[in-house]
Prior knowledge:
single chain; 526 residues; Rossmann fold; CATH 3.30.1330.90; 4 domains; 7-stranded parallel beta sheet; 6-stranded mixed beta sheet
Amino acid sequence: MQVLIAxxxxxxxxxxxxxxxLKVLKKPGIKADELKTIINACDGIILRSGTKITASLLxxxxxxxxxxxxxxxxxxxxxxxxxxxxxxxxxTPEGNITSTAEHTVALLFSLSRFIPQACASxxxxxxxxxxxxxxxxAGKTLxxxxxxxxxxxxxxxxxxxxxxxxxxxxxxxxxxxSQYNINIVKNLKDLLSQADYIxxxxxxxxxxxxLITKNEFSIMKKSARIINCARGGIISEEDLYTAIKSxxxxxxxxxxxxxxxxxxxxxxxxxxxxxxxxxxxxTEEAQFAVAVEAAEQMxxxxxxxxxxxxxxxxxxxxxxYVKLKPYITLAEKMGALLVQLAKGGIQTVDxxxxxxxxxxxxxxxxxxxxxxxxxxxxxxxVNMVSAPLLLAERGIKINVTTxxxxxxxxxxxxxxxxxxxxxxxxxxxxxxxxxPRIVEINGYSVESILDKYMLILFGKDKxxxxxxxxxILGSKKINIAHMTFGRKESGGNAITIVNVDAAIPQNCLRxxxxxxxxxxxxxxxx
Length: 526
């Protein structure tokens, strides 16, 4: 069997693969045309961020079994296309954690002491000591957004530097946070208003795109400084430029950009911005560690020892997976809906299975629900293999109960989140052969389709309310695909769920929120 190394990696990668009896073809920087001609001769491919594996490349492969990304992000691999072709995609999430955390701290020091600017000044023959008077970081507050593996390592180092550390992450328990001396805040606004330094350690996805914009900058201290070693696009670069230019924030250290290299980016014009060319994982130790991890995982995969850190492989036999697919789909969508309805940090997750479903492998469904919970906020690669571990890492307890009793449905899945601000509960089932439905939300009986965009409104049961909602959506040319309504008594509290064909603009949501008898509005993206 042959493995292609498509990007530059240390020679230890070759040694491990050859020791496992695999043939190695090393072609760092291989062009797409050449890759297209040889991909069918490969059983495995190891790459970094330089090589892209597209759907068209994978279209005719029949020999390729595994792709391994030496690093965390797999955005340069078309994972759905690989899954469709039966190719397992793996990543190496552990190897570069320390290096990224250290680079974050290095940028924090550079921001505080104007190290790049002072270096350039001295090399230009100047001696401008007063101009580069710095800021002491001991005693300052560091706000960490995202307390995954890297975020926690940054916290550990910041505490050693005598900083006060606060963190925002709804997917970590106070108990785990306290082990790293992190004070958890209830919401992002609290972190932004308190922190002297703000560092981001979240993945880039629909939930985190433009997480920090002009609204968030307006909450920060004018002395605040921002660090991003995560992904480009999490901070609005245009709004950051305006905030620094206007004096709204003091400065930024950016390792990652929306477009790389950032040619013509206005941020590069500002003296208050220091930059590095995506160096978070660029240390000899990290490169060595991810090379070893990638080679060992590929060797195990191709020699029949199993897959590790697979981002698209359910750990169950195919026949069982196919039979339970409707409930797997239901559970993941329920998880995504739950986490978007819940407020505050998640403490426990309870899942109750009732009826015929209790005779099946509910572990498969449970893991899928956890994936739905975690996917919006955690690192790349959360799947049914990694989700339970990631949940446990964050100190979130999960309780599973099976009940063979009678209900209104042949099989029923009920999921409940206990968060710091209260409880959210959903029940769902599958109609027919493959029609997932939500049948109860927080005690309201409903029959809701789990489509891509759902507008969920809590309020009072009053005449004309549904018509007003329809008028507002119609005025914005937003089509209503399906609507359901639930109440506990006439004229009392009620829920309205509207399935729409497109995302609803913020100004439209505000109009709906301002309607009389509306208590809460949620736009859910499934």
